[in-house]
Specification:
Number of strands: 15
Strand content: 5-15%
Radius of gyration: 33 Å
Distance between the termini: 51 Å
Number of helices: 27
Largest sheet: 5 strands, antiparallel
Length: 589
């Protein structure tokens, strides 16, 4: 459930947020009438059905029914939790978060963060410009020798630091940054009265977050004897290497990404991306962390680990699998043969060979790793290997997967399937199916889409007219609506709530929010300009619907009456209703 924000603060945030500007940073919009239109970012389409209503501060897609306010839009586009989306919009609107409004240091910290991010951005431009100058020749030659084109170098914003002690420090100081700020950003080392650049004689890889902020840098030494070979920005007020991943800024642009490929190094990301691999990222000089696993889980349904083929890389894969599984992120392994790293593999064997590698599920990979530890030529080796694999397979809950692992293990060890199942802990007979031995997920009945009541479109139009605020007070009542969702929304509008407040209510269920978005987006300009007249037509049509239904029900009930007197009374009532019905129809004509 979303964190509760003070209503007044949230209303001010949305009022100060131009939803057209927010959406336009992700979607190309074109104004048509009173709305803006574009291709929906939430589903594939060729004809624009995605609308933005600036007056109501909401969006709605007539194709996939996505709807919401600016906060909801940022949550969906950035795969961000509620409060992260709120913080993004609050920064745009220069508003302090509610819990920090009474904190006297908050404005200082926010101002400091903005200054450090700006310093990093200017440093990235300095490094990138330097790469194309004589001072950057060693780094540019290195990148070219690794097979990188100028296009991909520019795409990743790669750069070079000079061999001088304080070139960057002097450049940024002249732009108005203080030594203290540069030191806080991890760009400059300050020792007493002396200040010198953190990075010298290195190829520079800017680390950019999902919001396009430059947080820090990784630098690859150009001198053979330089230590360390790779130097990364230390943790700063804007950078924590446990929480981000390299190239996440490019990943967020892929809405339909099927998987993320996690590699070890920055160069691996750049090189295999140039070769055509989509979705490559790397950790920031550390082993995979829980925070990084959760971040990756927001951007794709699966994460593939593709580390170097040496022993250190394979050990890191095992640790990475543990982290991803602990965070509930589905994962697999791309195993590279002959000890190659991803960059080497693609340069030697090509993209087709890389994509032809069948990703391994975690149990299969762990079994492969275990096999290296035992001599399967001996009975003892096969027995110990089988026992260790059985421990792994206890956690496999898919019957088909379990059957495949058992078949492979039986071939490798010579033990029968029944013996292996018994080792796993299952009670089995020779003819039992593995599916019967495992707990099965509860089957839920298939949900049916609710059928809309008769006259639903008319009720939608009436609700949309009510939302404009152009109808006389008391003209529309909750009882005019048969639809439970529309009746609920109408009641809130009648009580004085705005359409924006209703759509942005965190407690609103998805079906009610969708119903509100669809109704609020249903009006044509002509209907809105003639709101009272169109509402009168809607109310008359709904009254005709209700009278027709009432007459039908009374007619059916009259047949069951055994008293002539009661039948005559009901007939009189039906005749009165029929007369009113005919009058309403005549008015419509």
């Amino acid at each position: 459930m979303a964190i509760r924000l003070p209503s007044a603060w949230k209303e001010e945030l949305l009022a100060r947020t131009d939803i057209v500007s927010v959406v336009s940073s992700y979607v190309t919009l074109k104004k048509d009438g009173r709305r803006y239109w574009g291709l929906c970012p939430f589903h594939n389409e060729k004809t624009p059905s995605f609308s933005v209503n600036a007056d109501m501060n909401m969006y709605y897609c007539f194709g996939c029914k996505a709807t919401g306010d600016a906060i909801k839009f940022v949550m969906e586009m950035e795969r961000a939790p509620f409060m992260d989306a709120v913080k993004i919009l609050a920064d745009r609107a220069h508003m302090a978060l509610p819990e920090l409004q009474e904190d006297p240091d908050y404005e200082h910290r926010r101002s400091q963060r903005e200054r450090l991010l700006a310093a990093n951005r200017d440093a990235a431009r300095f490094y990138h410009d330097t790469l194309w100058k004589p001072e950057g020749k060693a780094a540019l030659d290195y990148l070219h020798n690794r097979g990188l084109t100028d296009g991909v170098i520019r795409r990743f914003g790669l750069g070079a630091s000079t061999s001088q002690w304080d070139d960057l420090t002097n450049f940024l100081t002249e732009k108005g940054y203080t030594r203290e700020e540069l030191n806080l950003a991890g760009l400059t080392v300050v020792k007493g009265d002396h200040a010198f650049d953190m990075f010298r004689s290195r190829a520079m890889f800017p680390i950019i977050d999902q919001y396009n902020h430059v947080l820090g840098f990784g630098g690859r030494a150009m001198q053979k004897d330089a230590k360390p070979k790779y130097l990364n920005t230390s943790d700063t007020p804007v950078f924590n290497k446990r929480k981000g991943v390299y190239a996440i800024n490019l990943i967020r642009k892929n809405r339909d990404l099927k998987r993320i490929i996690l590699v070890e190094g920055y160069m691996d990301v750049v090189a295999i991306s140039q070769a055509g691999v989509v979705g490559a990222v790397a950790t920031l000089g550390t082993a995979l962390t829980n925070e990084q696993a959760r971040l990756l889980g927001r951007y794709a349904p699966e994460v593939y680990l593709c580390y170097d083929g040496d022993e250190a890389g394979q050990h890191a894969i095992e640790r990475g699998l543990d982290i991803l599984e602990a965070e509930g992120v589905p994962c697999r392994v791309i195993y590279l043969p002959d000890g190659l790293d991803p960059d080497e593999f693609i340069r030697q064997r090509g993209l087709d060979a890389f994509e032809a590698i069948q990703p391994m599920r975690p149990p299969a990979y762990r079994m492969q790793r275990l096999r290296l530890q035992y001599n399967l030529e001996t009975q003892d080796g096969r027995a110990e290997y089988a026992k260790k694999c059985a421990e792994l397979l206890r956690n496999v809950r898919d019957p088909v997967d379990l059957e495949n692992y058992l078949e492979a293990l039986a071939v490798q060890t010579g033990f029968s399937r029944d013996v292996l199942l018994a080792q796993i802990g299952a009670q089995t007979a020779a003819n039992e199916n593995a599916a019967a031995l495992l707990p099965q997920p509860e089957r839920r009945p298939r949900e049916r889409m609710p059928r809309q009541p008769e006259g639903y479109k008319t009720e939608q139009t009436l609700l949309a007219l009510l939302a404009t605020g152009r109808l006389p007070q008391g003209m529309v009542k909750e009882t005019d609506f048969d639809s439970e969702n529309l009746r609920l929304i109408a009641g809130r509008l009648i009580a004085g709530e705005t359409p924006e407040a209703i759509v942005s209510d965190e407690d609103l269920t998805d079906d009610v929010r969708q119903a509100a978005g669809e109704a609020f987006s249903a009006l044509t300009a002509a209907e809105e300009d003639n709101a009272a007249s169109v509402a009168g037509d809607c109310l008359r049509n709904l009254r005709i619907r209700n009278l027709t239904r009432e007459i039908k029900e009374l007619t059916e009930s009259m047949r069951t009456l055994d008293s002539a007197e009661k039948q005559m009374q009901m007939l009189t009532e039906i005749q009165g209703l029929s007369k009113e019905l005919e009058q309403l129809k005549q008015q419509g004509r």
